Amino acid sequence: VKSKAGRKLRFTEQTTSMPGASTGQVVVTDHLNFWGGCRVKPKDGINHTTYTRPFTKSNAIQSAHTAYLKWSKMAGMERARVMLEAARIIRERRDNIAKLEVINNGKSITEARVDIDVSWQTLEYYAGIAGTLAGEHIQLPGGSFAYTRREALGVCVGIGAWNYPFQIACWKSAPALACGNAMVFKPSPFTAVTAVILAEIYKEAGVPDGLFNVVQGGAETGTLLCNHPGVAKVSFTGSVPTGKKIMEMSAKTVKQVTLELGGKSPLIIFKDCELENAVRGALMANFLTQGEVCCNGTRVYVQREIMPVFLEEVVKRTKAIRIGDPLLENTRMGALITRQHLDKVLGFVSQAKKEGAMVLCGGEAFTPIEPKLKGGYYMSPCVLDNCTDDMTCVKEEIFGPVMSVMPFDTEEEVLKRANNTTFGLASGVFTRDISRAHRVAENLQAGTCFINNYNISPVEVPFGGYKQSGFGRENGQVTIEYYSQLKTVVVEMGDVDDYFNC
Ligand SMILES: NC(=O)C1=CN([C@@H]2O[C@H](COP(=O)(O)OP(=O)(O)OC[C@H]3O[C@@H](n4cnc5c(N)ncnc54)[C@H](O)[C@@H]3O)[C@@H](O)[C@H]2O)C=CC1
Ligand SMILES: C[N+](C)(C)CCCC(=O)O
User: Cα–Cα distances in Å, from 475 out to 121, 123, 170, 458?
Assistant: First the structure.
């Protein structure tokens, strides 16, 4: 849905050809901004993309700051209770939120349900940690001592991409709120709807008004948020070029930054792998959410001896992927996010052909037979053979369902080739040799290495990049460090030295 701000949000199951061409439709009749505990009318009253005034008096950042003062004084256990209630509400409304996510994003309903499950689990996980936040006591000479306090940062900004709209909002807000911060979240203008649902759920669960706010808009709004002196931290998910701008803007007032950026991750398949699993893994690494996944393993290196059998299997299964109405239970691939993005992905396939790659399957615009789905942004998932490391399709992030396959001979060679990239988000290896698996994991320059599977990221496990794929982490206990700061309190129990007058 291209939701228009300033109208009411209602979910109806009508047949229509909305962007993404699902059988559902969202009619937006309520405002999509959410500040100070309620939906707010855009000041220009027209379109969320041209709107926001973070510098004006009554604004999202100010209301977030007021809420932060209250929330950060509560005990971790009290915050935990509210967060657990929010998790419960998400779980209860899982199917409805998942439907909205499908209509908004175009991904299949079965995937969207997993996203929503991961979302409430994220809130539960950080609720569990909220009650454990603590400092330490350090003994000093003469009975003096010091202690540390783990304190919130203040108002944190979250800026999200369009591929996992609700989940990204939860990955950012859950650790932020657990630590006592407030958050102003800006979703991608392509997927404006579900972050507001999260804001309403937090309110219903009992967070103070203004603790989690949603401002709609694009680059202009994001820029205002990153430059705002009242913001302590920016957590960004999106492309590398935008990430660089975010870092630059944040530097002006020394804001803390977490950057979850793009990738071009290698997946290495050795000849001693369990082939069935490796083929399934390659599909998991390339075709979730229409291939619009930052950590996808899109450079698939296959040991030469098993290349023919691997290709045969992978092509057979790729051709069998059911593309179509994302709201149907048996659909496994929905529609890409926009016409423009679809054209871009198809352009990568044409370029690959020009550079000598061979299309083994897919790579074309796809029109489902149902008339109601015509006009949707579908494409057939693509496997490219005859690829070399210097081709555009192997070097650049495509962010669509396009797998590039390349042969390799030795471990040493493939590691060198796998690491020859400015990205470093994820990586994967399939082998039955446990020593080799751990050796390869050690030597791959990436924030995650999946052994004998791919794209498994439960909330307990830290997620983030090496190199230009970003820094900071989301998920796992470590993320607490990225949403809090340590205060040292030094306590003198004796007299102050008479150093200057003795
Ligand atoms: N590492 C990760 O966790 C993920 C990374 N991504 C990356 O995101 C990209 C696709 O997402 P897009 O939404 O197209 O990325 P994008 O960088 O164009 O936009 C991301 C967000 O930043 C905002 N934005 C754009 N320009 C801005 C500016 N100058 N200042 C502040 N905010 C600005 C957008 O409105 C959007 O909310 C891919 O490259 C992908 O790899 C996507 C999902 C997850
Ligand atoms: C959930 N997972 C691992 C498939 C992708 C999460 C990262 C992203 O937002 O692209």
Answer: 11, 10, 10, 8
